[in-house]
Specification:
The structure holds 2 protein chains of 2 kinds. Chain A is an alpha+beta fold. Chain A is built from 11 helices and 9 strands. The N and C termini of chain A lie close together (10 Å). Classes of the chains: A alpha+beta, B alpha+beta.
Chain lengths: 382, 391
């Protein structure tokens, strides 16, 4: 058991941090970027590609770097540290992860290769209005129209769905959930994009007998693959959350040391410093759980359960730290001009993208009576 | 980054588990598992079994019985002990005065005290807190005045845990009332509890038990050779000792057992025609506590895995704070599972209420102490805010 990063991983962190600091070290720069479509900076996206980060977890034969979950965790945490709006988790970990898990060699070479180069942006079109964080599709259906698959129904919200070059769409086939690729410009595809509260982008994606390409080479049920990809994305989001919480806390502590009221700096008030101490406790417990979940993934353990544990812990911590970071700042924390609220907004968005804390708790509670104790270093995790 | 223990550590864990579950008398482990009070003889018997196998004081210097283990090995040793319901070596001996004498005592003191301390031939108690010196320990007022070859001790200590079993006391006393800083005028003395002038008065706690005491000193004569380390350096030794007190204070293994017990008992209680364990609110409450405990255990592992260079990991302060909160939450959970059964705390014969439900509330009430002792949780928050966040 080893909780330390090796020197190559530390180098990776330093390089990513340098790149993202240059782009978003000044939070005004982030405000400008998210004000206009596509809600992220294409140049920064290209630089991430040049550094190899957009192909990080994919096989080298498909244009990737062949790196593991710990490297993905490092990048996600650095994204969170500056709340960079580039869709690393959404495109690389989630949409890319599904293509890597299910796609044919040709699909992987084309799309993952294009993603790694920064030329193709994939997005996962999965959520359907009125459903919550299910691994299956229910309203969008696929039919085999004489050798051509056609999809019909609505997907929303689809993160970065309007900007995406290719959509990975889940759809009902014979009672199961299959995955398809839908290209931008396909017949019967309508996309209406909008801004999300955290500065991100999402879209309503309408499909009307839209021609689609089956992802993979057989139309089997892909629910398990979706569940696994969602779990890996939840783990990556837990690292993004840790990065965001870390900055929110450091920013708050700095503010308490400099802001004066009643003739003294705010850190003279124990009512405030004790709340900051509790934020630190939440952060470190969340960090431990996030690191562990990536180690479980790396070790080939039960990644779905580990992701639920990480999701629960980081959701609770994210709400605690996000809300208190604003409260300890006072009025300035509620303004868009000041950065701390951006972190709270992003943490809130992450909570609702792939499942919030109560949702994860519900899944954990459903199996709590089936074992006696949890050994995080033993079965089913290691 | 790697999740699995090395094969060597897996074997070590198995060795500990086998020893604790086969070599410590079952009756003693059953008493701990049932959360009943142990007798003095049970504490002594356990510690001697452990000491004979080199498992009582592995963290001491090797020449005095230590094992030169890594922090991770010590963590595994402690966790396995808790999971097996083995009473831990008496903290006053193994974690407090033993390491202080080993680090700061003279050779004669080491030879005189350490083997008997490891084997619990001497039962030590702690004379630190006073009625007016709790979290602000340095305000203590018990004095020791030099008179020929003796120190003469006068004053009062309190919260002296299990003092009723103790043979000796280690005591912080004020030896220089004129010192500019109050921390500078304190020394550490050790002396037998049956010395003339020592009086012990038990304090009844809200659980109905007697585990702490007041200790009064009236002209107690202590030979000069019983001063530990240097005169007026007692505060340094106290800080060293309290640092040790926080080691293992997360008590993850203990809380893990409580949660396992909670699940078992919740499945035996019927609520609205079905087992309480199947109530979604109860299942969620247990699952959330369990997840918080996983997070704490992982944080403890991060801390021990990264403290090999002797410097404590910054996250270590989280362990006492969160560890005590989770112990308290788990004892509260069991009271709530017991529900009306929890009222039978003092039933003796003639009650149909099972033992676990009878001990539930006294333990819950008793465990309010864990967020107070060893540096209260408010002291821990002060440390986190000041030392880690720079506030």
């Amino acid at each position: 058991m080893d909780f330390t990063f090796d020197s190559e991983q530390n180098d990776l962190r330093e390089a990513v941090r340098g790149l993202l600091e240059r782009a978003y070290g000044d939070s005004e720069q982030r405000r400008k970027v998210v004000a206009n479509d596509p809600g992220f900076d294409e140049k920064t996206w290209s630089r991430l590609a040049e550094m190899g980060l957009l192909g990080l977890p994919f096989a080298e034969e498909h244009g990737g770097m062949g790196a593991g979950p710990m490297e993905v965790a490092i990048v996600a945490e650095e994204i969170g540290r500056v709340v960079a709006p580039e869709p690393f988790v959404e495109a690389v970990v989630l949409a890319g992860g599904l293509i890597a898990a299910v796609g044919t060699d040709a699909q992987k070479s084309e799309i993952l290769g294009g993603l790694a180069e920064g030329a193709i942006l994939p997005a996962f079109a999965h959520a359907e209005p009125g459903t919550r964080w299910s691994p299956s599709a229910s309203a969008v259906t696929a039919t085999d129209d004489g050798g051509t698959w056609r999809l019909t129904g609505v997907k929303e919200p689809v993160p970065h769905g309007a900007r995406a070059d290719v959509l990975v769409v889940s759809a009902v086939v014979d009672g199961g959930t299959a995955l398809f690729l839908v290209r931008a410009g396909a017949d019967g595809l309508s996309r209406t994009g909008y801004r999300t509260h955290d500065g991100g982008r999402a879209a309503n994606v309408g499909l009307d007998s839209t021609p689609a390409e089956l992802l993979g080479d057989a139309p089997g049920d892909r629910t398990a693959a979706v569940e696994r990809a969602l779990a890996e994305a939840r783990i990556a989001y837990s690292h993004e959350s840790v990065g965001a919480m870390d900055t929110a806390l450091r920013t708050t502590a700095e503010y308490l040391k400099t802001r004066k009221q009643f003739g003294v700096t705010l850190n003279r008030f124990q009512a405030l410093t004790f709340r900051a101490a509790d934020m630190y406790v939440s952060l470190e417990l969340a960090r431990s759980t996030a690191l562990w979940a990536s180690m479980v993934q790396d070790a080939g353990g039960d990644v779905v359960s580990a992701a639920d544990r990480a999701r629960l812990q980081t959701s609770r911590a994210g709400r605690h730290i996000g809300k208190d970071a604003i409260q300890l700042h006072g009025g300035i924390g509620v303004t868009a001009e000041y950065k701390v609220g951006h972190y709270t907004s992003r943490l809130t968005a992450i909570d609702h993208l792939l499942g919030d804390g109560d949702w994860a708790l519900g899944r954990l509670a459903a199996s709590v009576n089936s074992y006696e104790t949890v050994d995080p270093l033993g079965a089913p995790y290691a | 980054m790697r999740l699995q223990l090395s094969p060597e550590l897996e074997a070590f864990r198995e060795e500990m588990r086998t020893f604790f579950t086969t070599q410590v008398p079952q009756e003693i482990r059953d008493t701990v598992a049932a959360r009943r009070h142990l007798t003095k003889e049970q504490y002594v018997e356990t510690q001697r079994v452990l000491n004979a196998a080199g498992l009582a004081v592995p963290h001491w210097p090797v020449e005095w019985g230590g094992r030169d283990w890594t922090p991770l090995q010590r963590h595994i040793w402690r966790e396995e002990m808790q999971l097996a319901s083995v009473p831990e070596p008496l903290a006053f001996n193994a974690s407090m005065i033993g390491p202080v004498i080993a680090a700061f005592g003279n050779q004669e003191q080491k030879e005189r005290f350490l083997p008997k301390t490891a084997n619990l031939d001497i039962w030590w108690c702690q004379g630190f807190s006073e009625p007016d010196a709790g979290s602000d320990l340095a305000s203590l007022r018990t004095t020791a005045v030099r008179d020929g070859d003796d120190w003469v001790v006068n004053g009062q200590k309190t919260w002296t845990t299990l003092g009723q079993h103790a043979d000796w006391i280690f005591c912080l006393v004020r030896t220089d009332p004129t010192a500019e800083k109050k921390q500078r005028g304190i020394s550490m003395l050790v002396f037998p509890m049956d010395s003339p002038g020592v009086t012990l008065r038990p304090i009844e706690l809200i659980d109905g038990g007697y585990e702490v005491n007041e200790v009064f000193f009236e002209d107690v004569r202590v030979p000069a050779e019983n001063l530990i380390g240097e005169e007026n350096r007692g505060w340094d030794y106290a800080k060293f000792l309290l640092g040790n007190e926080r080691v293992g204070i997360a008590r993850v293994g203990y809380t893990k057992r409580l949660l396992a017990e909670a699940k078992e008992k919740a499945s035996e209680i019927t609520d609205g025609g079905r087992p309480l364990s199947e109530d979604p609110r109860m299942a969620a409450r247990i699952a959330e506590l369990e997840n918080e405990l996983v997070a704490l255990e992982l944080t403890a592992l991060r801390v021990v895995a990264n403290s090999a260079d002797g410097k404590p990991h910054p996250a270590s302060s989280v362990l006492k704070l969160r560890g005590s909160e989770l112990q308290q939450a788990a004892t509260e959970l069991i009271v709530d599972i017991a529900g009306p059964l929890s009222l039978a705390s003092f039933a003796d014969g003639g009650s149909d209420i099972p033992d676990w439900a009878r001990v539930a509330t006294p333990e819950y009430l008793n465990y309010r102490k864990v967020s107070i002792y060893g540096g209260s949780n408010e002291v821990q928050r002060t440390i986190i805010a000041g030392t880690i966040l720079g506030l």
